[in-house]
Task: inverse folding
């Protein structure tokens, strides 16, 4: 296997002590959402799985055991739920972009990787979806 192939298969290492970057993540968040381009997908919610990986700049002053000094994963989950609650979305790509924008509102977030998967739409597949990575241009 070439080194290029390994880079594709191996997960990106986000946490980096030298750069003072923390890896904040949400794994396998399963929520019901109205999503899809087909008529039948407009009426019945379907299961989505969302995964988030954020590269977060650590604060200069340290943690001080204060929630205000970190990017809160509970807030991320609530933000995803709020996006889903807005209503029907046609494409998983649109959903992923909207979630990425929400994550990047916190200026400590250097980058975000978002994966959105539809779990029940293709019977022969465990899931289908999209994964994107976006960067904070203000960092």
Result:
């Amino acid at each position: 296997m070439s080194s290029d192939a390994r880079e594709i298969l191996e997960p990106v290492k986000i946490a980096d002590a030298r750069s003072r970057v923390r890896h904040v993540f949400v794994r396998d968040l399963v929520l019901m959402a109205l999503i899809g381009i087909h008529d039948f997908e407009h009426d019945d919610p379907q299961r989505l799985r969302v995964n988030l990986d954020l590269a977060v700049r650590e604060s200069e002053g340290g943690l001080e055991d204060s929630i205000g000094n970190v990017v809160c994963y509970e807030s991320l989950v609530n933000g995803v739920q709020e996006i889903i609650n807005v209503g029907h979305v046609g494409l998983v790509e649109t959903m992923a972009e909207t979630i990425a924008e929400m994550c990047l509102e916190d200026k400590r977030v250097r980058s975000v990787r978002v994966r959105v998967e539809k779990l029940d739409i293709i019977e022969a597949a465990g899931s289908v979806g999209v994964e994107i990575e976006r960067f904070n241009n203000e960092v």
